[in-house]
Design a protein that fits this description.
With about 450 residues, this protein is an alpha+beta fold. Among the domains are: about 10-115 and about 350-439, no CATH class; about 240-315, no CATH class. The protein has helices at about 20-25, 30-35, 50-60, 75-85, 90-100, 105-120, 190-205, 220-230, 245-255, 325-330, 335-345, 355-380, 395-405, 425-439; strands spanning about 10-15, 135-140, 140-145, 155, 160, 165-170, 175-180, 210-215, 235-240, 260-265, 265-275, 285-295, 300-315, 405-410, 415-420. Strand 14 (about 405-410) and strand 15 (about 415-420) form a beta hairpin. Helix 6 (about 105-120) runs parallel beside helix 12 (about 355-380). The protein is globular.
Length: about 450
């Protein structure tokens, strides 16, 4: 079979989902606030600041981060219509505007509007164990090796790159806050003020009890104080044993823990103990799990017992038995990191300037929440094209099935219409999301 190739006069688009992104952006004050910012060297720009930012968000929500990828959309009528842009900038204009922007002002606006968007759309936040809204934070190294970008240094993963920190809210994993850091920055450096800011942002979205979860890199009394100073905030922070020996914790476990023996040759002690720390008017709780193995699971007998110790700072002194299950869920955050790195294509940041890359990552925060909202709203439809039931739709799935959805752009009687294919399996989902965002 050989096909005859020809180019029609019809206006077709392969990214109909940008109309969903445009609807969500209309609910924010982002264009107005960005246009109000002052550039000392650019008083009357031909292309507005809002058009630059919205155009780049249109790229990011398609999983494209390079500035040069804006060029094909400059002659795309639908791209500008969907995002409510007057003009689509060129790649040099996009790069230069991001370089010249007042980065702290723009980052603050993007961060605040990303949270405000969740508030205005009444984003659903699913609690864990029916009681806590999780607030997870962690550092995720970005591999930017073989580059001379400003701020690139050796990370704890032994790769050259950046070490940004992210804060996610709810089991849906909405991005609440972030900070781009040089690769050599310690994970605790400057974390306490950002944690306080993230808790304040979370309070705009929910009155439910929060559960802050941090790994051993953030084992610091500063973080515990932040949680203690905020009512209705619980925490689980994995401890760094530092100079504590495994044998000392075995003794503590034998004295204060509850012993279980799931199989021959394996003993597990779980429990909690209270310790005094300077700066706190009451003892702090440490939950522990100590495992002693004398026989491996394959039946091999060990000459010397193997010890495995995990300890956690926690405010759940009376519920230590579920601390380990709650912290285990903290690992889900690695999926969120992966979506930012791969689905949004933000691991190798596009600029050689650290401040510009920080601004790009904050743009990514807005794009991430936009796509997450589209994905979670699409799950409200009973009949799904994909049979597997999920409670969270991955960003890549949203981009592939709802953002890059083909349609025909029709102009008639001063109105615009998107005509989808007769057998478009995602049309009903798309229609539901569009109507939900239109109201």
């Amino acid at each position: 079979m050989r096909f005859i190739l020809e180019q029609s006069d019809e206006s077709l688009t392969t990214h109909s989902g940008l109309s969903l992104i445009g609807l969500l952006l209309q609910k924010t004050q982002l264009p107005k606030r960005l246009n109000a910012t002052i550039f000392p060297e650019l008083k009357n720009p031909e292309i507005s600041h809002a058009d630059v930012a919205l155009s780049y968000l249109g790229l990011l929500t398609q999983g494209k981060s390079a500035f040069e990828q804006i060029e094909p959309f400059r002659r795309d009528d639908f791209f500008a219509l969907a995002l409510h842009c007057q003009h689509v900038p060129s790649a040099p204009t996009l790069r230069q505007r991001c370089d010249a922007a007042p980065h702290q002002d723009w980052e603050t606006i993007l961060r605040e509007e990303a949270v405000a968007l969740l508030q205005k759309t009444n984003a659903t936040l699913t609690p864990t164990h029916g009681r806590w809204i999780p607030l997870d934070a962690d550092v995720s190294p970005f591999d930017n090796s073989d580059s001379r970008k400003e701020g690139v240094a050796m990370t704890y993963k032994k790769v050259l790159g950046y070490a940004p920190m992210f804060f996610y809210l709810g089991q849906e994993g909405y991005l609440l806050d972030l900070e781009l850091r040089t690769g050599s920055t310690h994970s605790q450096n400057g974390t306490a003020p950002i944690l306080q800011r993230a808790i304040t942002s979370a309070r705009q979205l929910t009155a439910e009890r929060l559960l802050v979860r941090l790994d051993a890199g953030n084992d610091s009394l500063e973080n515990i104080k932040v949680c203690h100073n905020n009512p209705s905030v619980d925490y689980i922070i994995k401890r760094n044993l530092r100079h504590e020996t495994l044998e000392s914790w075995l003794q503590i476990a034998q004295q204060h823990g509850r012993l279980e023996q799931p199989r021959p040759g394996k003993k597990v002690w779980t429990g909690s103990t209270m310790v005094e720390r300077e700066g706190f008017d009451q003892p702090l709780c440490i939950a522990f799990e100590v495992i002693e193995r004398t026989i491996k699971a394959n039946g091999q007998t060990l000459i010397m017992p193997e010890l495995e110790v995990a300890t956690y700072w926690t405010s759940l002194a009376d519920e230590a038995k579920i601390v380990f299950a709650l912290y285990h869920e903290h690992g889900t955050m690695e999926q969120f990191h992966s979506e930012i790195k791969t689905d949004l294509d933000l691991e190798r940041l596009p600029s050689g300037k650290f401040a510009t890359n920080s601004l790009v990552l904050h743009m990514g925060m807005m794009a991430y929440n936009l796509l997450r909202l589209v994905g979670q709203t699409s799950l409200q439809v009973a009949e799904q094209p994909l049979r597997k039931k999920v409670r969270r739709r991955r960003l890549r799935t949203v981009i592939q099935n709802l953002i890059t959805l083909a349609s025909r752009l029709v102009a008639h009687a001063r109105t615009w219409k998107l005509a989808f294919g007769k057998y478009s399996p995602w049309y009903m989902i798309f229609r539901h999301v569009y109507l939900a965002f239109s109201t």
